[in-house]
Amino acid sequence: MLLRIEQLDVFYGRNHAVKAMSLDLDAGEIVTVLGANGAGKSSLLKAIQGTVPAASGRVFFKGTDISRWSAARRVASGIVMVPEGRQIFVNMTVHENLLLGAYTRRDDTAAEIDAIYARFPNLAQRRDMQASVLSGGEQQMLAVGRGLLARPEVMMLDEPSLGLSPILVKQLFKLIVDLNRNGLAILLVEQNTSMALSVARHGYVLERGRTVMQGTPAEILSNERLTAAYLGQA
Ligand SMILES: Nc1ncnc2c1ncn2[C@@H]1O[C@H](COP(=O)(O)OP(=O)(O)OP(=O)(O)O)[C@@H](O)[C@H]1O
Ligand SMILES: [Mg+2]
Q1: Per residue in 156-174, pLDDT tens?
Q2: What are the tens digits of pLDDT across the range 202-225?
Q3: What distances in angstroms separate CA 93 from CA 103, 110, 209, 213, one per listed residue?
Q4: Into which CATH architecture does domain 3-229 fall?
Q5: b/e string for 97-119 if b means 16 or more Cβ within 10 A?
Q6: Ligand 1 centroid to 37 CA: how many Å?
Q7: pTM (2 decimals)?
Q8: Element (H, E) at 20
Q9: 156 in ligand 1 pocket by Cβ < 6 Å?
Q10: Which amino acid residue places its CA nearest to atom 30 of ligand 1?
Q11: 140: closest CA among 172, 102, 167, 170?
């Protein structure tokens, strides 16, 4: 197993945001985490990345318990998160934003940056412009490109389709499938449940911090109570 989460709990003060969450992600897989606003999806990803502390539970990466590792060490070892809302630096250029993705690298990244520009021609055209001029879709591509430069083995995407037009959502999911076919394991948090379940091998549904269901996309979609209550927009 590439990534294994066991009985993870996250608290913000007395708010128990993630409750005994367990999750498995194998090499080469896409696994999705679904749930309504406030269900604990981002908190789960942040605890895996190490940017919020887990009160209990463990995170294993390739069989090693990394629960006590710093976030920087987790990134350097190949666990990379593209955060919700993209969080690119709007006062920096597109190129400077990409370079930040390579900050854990000591080797030469020029060829990989060229490959990212080849994949995202809109970014190449705007490489010396401030990131603030990018459209929502271009900002999302920049955030993904920046994440790729950290050479992830696991990429965690937090609601990447949020705010994108239907055409851009399609393009984004094509990119996700494409990256996955090239060997990247992806942990995908989404509220666009139909798109997420169309690409994932396995899904988890969170409700107020707890996993209320997990299974194949077909199993999740056949649960009428869940599809009505939490996946209504699918
Ligand atoms: N930094 C924080 N401090 C205090 N409470 C927080 C913090 N971040 C999240 N929470 C709370 O933890 C719970 C889970 O939030 P989280 O952001 O993980 O949910 P989510 O599933 O990602 O929601 P959304 O779909 O809106 O992004 C919510 O009750 C939220 O208010
Ligand atoms: Mg969130």
Answers
A1: 999 999 988 898 899 899 9
A2: 999 999 999 999 999 999 999 887
A3: 16, 16, 37, 42
A4: 3-Layer(aba) Sandwich (3.40)
A5: bbbebbeeeeeebeebbeebbeb
A6: 8
A7: 0.94
A8: strand 15-25
A9: no
A10: 38
A11: 172
